[in-house]
Specification:
Non-ribosomal Peptide Synthetase Peptidyl Carrier Protein, Chain A; about 350 residues; TIM Barrel; alpha/beta; two-stranded antiparallel ribbon; about 15% strand; 11 strands; single chain; eight-stranded parallel beta barrel; binds flavin mononucleotide
């Protein structure tokens, strides 16, 4: 039987189990939309500060047209994004409640609570992975999100994303997941590295398998998913309901169609460079429509590195692209590269 399956998260039904993970600085709404086109069945905005959202948008709200601040732009649905969750971070349940209540004009399909971010400026305030040091507070934050969802968001499911624990001597993912589910979370995503590991070393998939055996809600696995085969292996090895691509999807929205093909047919085909680079240009144009051409061209530099990684001639292309300031300049650089080696 195929490992590609539909997923139910509370009342939310998803066509498949290949998700796009939240990746700050990369999973902007343009990119999420491109991934949805290629078959990402569910995606997450990058983490957004509940405090900042409330402070910047609390007064005038967050409608499609009024939300013009940076935080507001992060949380809008992508054009082709059928199903998406907005991810909030915060340590104060009241801030999370107020920020979540503001999201109703955007009609997210779920609300995700970040309990995994390792970044010092997030954890120093008790948010992100620091919530795992205080499971009781994690429970309060999740409860506040559930309350806001019931009152303002049509009772969309609240989900939570955790790590294995703070460090190797405090592996408390099972306790944190239990507390979150008791507080009303309807899915748990686990990135099985500790906060101390940051993004280094290897993720320990045995923690995902263990969590699957303990929870009655769906568990989504994250960690070291770089190829379609990795997704297949994680689904098989851990029994998780869904997998979420993170670094493996950067610059490669095609990983979703490839992974689906592998799960359904046992085979997949890689995407030629010309198609990949064409998507990079579309990404740039869509991003420019959202944040303006200049900002999009700057933002695109790191994304461009991801799109061209691993390709012959990619380094030369990247060297040129870091100086590009307009879409026309990007296009010229790309056309020259593809013109030189159309078979790439
Ligand atoms: C640059 C970067 C930014 C990330 N931003 C977020 C985030 O905003 N929210 C979140 O829950 N996880 C975030 N993550 C974690 C990923 O969602 C994922 O769990 C992690 O990268 C492990 O998957 P991978 O090894 O396949 O990349 C981020 C990871 C990276 C590398």
């Amino acid at each position: 039987m195929s490992l590609y399956r539909s997923v139910k998260i509370g009342s939310l039904e998803l066509d498949g189990n290949l998700f796009l993970a939240p990746v700050a600085g990369y999973t902007d709404r343009a990119f999420r939309s491109l991934c949805a086109e290629e078959g990402a069945c569910f995606s997450f905005t990058e983490l957004v500060s509940a405090e900042a959202l409330y402070r910047s948008c609390g007064r005038y709200g967050l409608g499609e047209t009024t939300g013009s601040t940076a935080a507001a732009n992060l949380v809008r649905r992508g054009e082709k994004e059928k199903r998406y969750a907005i991810q909030l971070f915060g340590a104060q349940s009241e801030s999370v409640y107020r920020a979540a209540a503001l999201l109703s004009p955007l009609r997210p399909d779920a609300l995700d609570i970040n309990a995994g971010c390792p970044v010092p400026k997030v954890v120093k305030n008790g948010a992100g992975s620091a919530l795992m040091k205080n499971p009781a507070n994690l429970g309060k934050v999740v409860e506040a999100a559930v309350r806001a969802s019931c009152e303002s968001l049509g009772s969309v499911p609240v989900t939570v994303k955790i790590r294995s624990g703070w460090d190797s001597v405090s592996l408390n993912y099972a306790e944190c997941a239990r507390v979150a589910v008791e507080a009303g979370a309807q899915m748990v995503s686990l990135h099985p590295r500790t906060r101390a590991q940051n993004y280094g070393g290897k993720s320990d998939w045995s923690h995902i398998a263990d969590l699957v055996s303990r929870l009655s809600v769906p568990v989504t696995g994250s960690g070291d998913l770089y190829t379609p085969e990795d997704a297949l292996q994680m689904l098989k090895e851990t029994g998780c309901t869904a997998v979420m691509f993170a670094r493996g999807a950067m610059g490669n929205p095609f990983i979703f169609s490839a992974a689906r093909s592998l799960l359904e047919t046992g085979a997949w085909q890689s995407t030629p460079f010309s198609a990949r680079i064409a998507v990079a240009l579309r990404h740039l144009e869509m991003l420019s429509a959202d944040i303006g051409e200049r900002a999009a061209c700057l933002e695109m530099r790191k994304q461009f590195c991801a799109y061209t990684k691993g390709f012959r001639g990619g380094a030369a292309l990247r060297d040129k692209a870091v100086h590009a300031e307009t879409i026309a300049e990007y296009r010229k650089i790309v056309e020259e590269a593809v013109g030189k080696s159309p078979d790439l």
